[in-house]
Amino acid sequence: MQDPDLDPEANIVVASSDHLILKEAAFLERIRTGLTYTASHDTICCLGIQPTRPDTGYGYIHYGNETVSGIHKVIEFKEKPDMDTAREYLEAGSLYLEFGHFYFPVRVW
Description:
The chain is an alpha+beta fold and about 110 residues long. It contains two helices and five strands, in the order E-H-E-E-E-H-E. The protein has one domain (about 10-105): Spore Coat Polysaccharide Biosynthesis Protein SpsA, Chain A.
């Protein structure tokens, strides 16, 4: 990891490398939104995906109201559910799939 003294205002992206990204422009826009937010807030952002089917292979992010455009406050993280619970999460409509992408300023690290 780079020495934080070299750029104390830097943002860090931690990203899983095993995902197929089909909507690259939308994905890059979400990254920009997260980095813009963390550049001026001492917080950690995580990227969530709107589920289209119940999924037991990922954890879920229960999110609250939008605080600024595209950014929601996390209420809680949910571990990988069983299929019945994953169906409940999908029906609830207020949970994203959590797939291991995080953004934060080095000062938070």
